[in-house]
Write a structure and sequence with these properties.
The protein is of the alpha/beta class. It is 40% helix and 16% strand. The strands form 2 sheets. Strands 3-2-1-4-5-6-8 form a 7-stranded parallel beta sheet, sandwiched between helices. It has a two-stranded parallel sheet with strand order 7-9.
Length: 283
């Protein structure tokens, strides 16, 4: 069975990485089923309604596919509860390859999606787990940092002088497309970063320089950041987000990897290039 007549399932196809993965697969002549809760077609693909929490939507999504890009359910503390039953069904229905989006902050067997990561190699012979650092896209569009940049000229974190290897979602998607389409799957856990580890002070300085609009990094305490988040989201998520900043401050994300270049053949994009492309200039 050649890959031309079977499709790749992209779960979360309307999201930050899913949309780009779908576009990248279509550009390579692959058939794609774009799965999302809204069932909106992406890049001319057939769209399918999919919800991790509605098993009735699973079989329709799995029909006629042999591989999938998996974006965990947003905001779930226990994604394994829905994902593992789905993946067992996927394997039984003939899916051979799974590429999972996780996070640099979560190792195999760690919390949340870490449990799915741990189970993946036992379920599929062909697999990859993508573990990107924090997205550059957090500074653009409707993301919270982008809003505070526009409204207050500030990025507010409790990350102190901690460094992060911010990565462009375009690069995450390019790695995902290779992991889905290469003859040989990575069968590995891939840490994805940009070319530099930067503090939020350095991010603010870059945005200021490129856009001509002054942006500062305001250093908040853990408690102040948690309370700020708790005004918008449930308290356990507010605490989790503030905890992540505390980990960054302690150096947890201070690293870079050459994975993007090794797998795609081109260097990972810089924060400056991202800001020039996606963050509005003054005027």
């Amino acid at each position: 069975m050649g890959h031309r007549n079977v499709a790749t399932l992209v779960i979360g196809a309307t999201g930050t990485t899913g949309r780009r993965v779908t576009t990248g697969l279509v550009a390579r002549g692959r058939r794609v089923k774009a799965a999302s809760r809204t069932a909106i077609p992406v890049a001319g693909t057939p769209a399918v309604h999919f919800d991790w929490n509605e098993p009735a939507t699973w079989d329709g999504a799995l029909d006629g596919i042999d591989r999938a890009y998996l974006v965990p359910p947003i905001g779930s503390f226990d994604p394994a509860a829905a994902m593992l039953p789905f993946l067992r069904r996927a394997r039984a229905s003939g899916m051979r390859r799974a590429v999972l989006l996780s996070s640099s902050a979560i190792p195999a067997g760690g919390p949340a999606v870490g449990r799915v990561h741990e189970a993946l190699p036992g379920l599929f012979e062909e697999w990859a787990v993508l573990r990107p650092s924090w997205f550059m896209q957090n500074f653009a569009g409707s993301a919270p940092h982008a809003r505070s940049i526009r409204e207050d000229g500030a990025i507010l974190t409790a990350a102190g002088q901690g460094r992060i290897g911010f990565v462009d979602a375009e690069d995450i998607a390019a790695v995902a497309v290779r992991a889905l389409t290469d003859e040989q799957a990575p069968n590995a856990d891939l840490i994805l970063t940009g070319p530099q580890a930067l503090t939020y002070d350095e991010v603010a300085a870059t945005i200021t320089e490129v856009t001509g609009r002054p942006v500062e990094h305001r250093h908040l305490t853990f408690d102040r950041l948690r309370d700020r988040w708790a005004a918008e989201i449930p308290p356990e998520f507010a605490t989790m987000l503030a905890d992540m900043d505390r980990d960054i401050a302690a150096g947890a994300e201070d690293r870079t990897s050459d994975t993007v270049e090794r797998i795609t053949g081109r260097p990972a994009g810089t924060l400056r290039a991202f800001v020039e492309r996606e963050v509005g200039r003054a005027g």
